[in-house]
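Homework help thread (please don't just give me the answer)

Our assignment gives two proteins as sequence + structure token strings and asks us to describe the second one. The first is just a warm-up. Here they are:
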Amino acid sequence: FPLMQYVGEFPLEELFLHAYFETSHVESTLYEDAGDGYDYKKGIYNVKKFKTNGTESSFSITQSYVHKEYSTTYKFYTVHVHGLRFIAKECYVDGINIPILRNGTVWEIKVPENFEEIFIK
């Protein structure tokens, strides 16, 4: 990814997310805003919740919005899944089967930024 010297130097086309396999429920939060002003004080920002859940044969990631008033420039996530304890054979994003690629020990998926659930088995 190219080095950005200042906010807005170029639009982000995708955001990289790293998810780590765990056999329990894990929750993370992503806050995002323009980064160059005070619009967040007017409520122009996003707060997203990500929840992961793993079993010995599956792994899921869900995304939900807590607050959604900011329009991102990116339209895709590249999700890097670390530490799966099984060989992924299928991946579904909102019920649609999509390719999942293996790069060493990391699995990679490209998904729309507004996905609701990723399910790997």
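The one we have to describe:
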Amino acid sequence: MVLTSLGPPEPHRMAQQDTWTKKDLTGIEELSRPEIERLFRQADQFLPALAPGKGLDLMKGRTVVNLFLEPSTRTRTAFEISAKKLGAEVVSINTTASSLVKGETLRDTAENIRAMGVDAIVMRHSSAGSARYLGSVLDISVVNAGDGAHEHPTQALLDAFTLRQRFGKVEGLKVTILGDILFSRVARSNILCLSKLGAQVTLAGPATLVPATLKEAFPQVRIVHDLKEALKDCDAVMLLRIQHERQTTTHFPSLGEYTSQFGLNAERAAWLKPEAIVMHPGPINRGVEVESEVADGPRSVILEQVRNGVAVRMAVLHLCTTVVTMPDSLPAADNVGTIQLLREICSRDAAVRVLPTGTLTKGHEGKALAPLGTMKKAGVVAVTDTTSGVQNNEIMRRALEYAAMFDLVVLDHCQDSSMT
């Protein structure tokens, strides 16, 4: 899938990757840094829609199913709000309401949901890799809302988005992740995401929950078991709750013992730099990993994370369920009639939302400009002569000037046919 920005061209657009080619979001591991940054730019555009009473119609007529087979409040609600803010219909299914309790397989459940005309499935499941598996067998979008102790990609994305919002960048930041690293899918996804964006990650907590063997999986991280050392020079500390539901043995004597050694209270928060922030993915166990005076204090960005999570998940749903077509049809998409016909066909037959592009020149022959203004009114979101490119410098200059009048994105293949 390919998606270009729907907004006006940015001054630095040529230096950025403005495409998204993924049907699914099943993990941070398969995302590149340009893809993460592309998603952030899309989330930026959705922030104004978070105001009460605001919304968009980008997914109007589409249906998203939340298939949550593990308990959830924040993530499920955030995905529901995100889909509704985009104009989609939302159906939520939990474990007790699904046929899985009757012995049906996950694949059969998902394929039955797909057969009902659904456009995307957001799934939380206890088995690692379950979302990736569904994405491989379904032709609709699958978004991972947490799969066992494996990954929680949208949480990591919203955390990094919040850091970017606070500091203007993620590159070079020092981030300490404190708590139950061993059993945390949030920790795994954040390590991957923050490292790809150029942050320096420190893992901290008791040795039983932050074992030295984590360096084998994540050689780029620093592991520290002394809390003061972990906090003293970080830009952000990300607190994690104790994952009782995933632990099979006792990894520390008691919650009281954990709090006495690693709980973040006001005294220990004073070890942080003045500008450092406190983060938490929720749910918070007040009085265990963090005291209320810190969770509710001026350093805390916990509620900012919650708010940003809606914009980030809107971006994920939008990007994964939208396709931009190239104007390679016969006849070429260089006139209103052809563009309208393409839109009718896509509206009738496509499983996802399809946005058309038009040709930059008539017949994409590179000789005369196509009617860009009327094509924009007909619904094109960008113009391009695809792989042939425009070989005449004067025509290309005029095309760029004319397209700018209509805020049309120009997708150009930088090829010179005179070179061999």
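TA reply:
I won't write it for you, but here's a hint about the kind of observation we're looking for: The radius of gyration is 24 Å.
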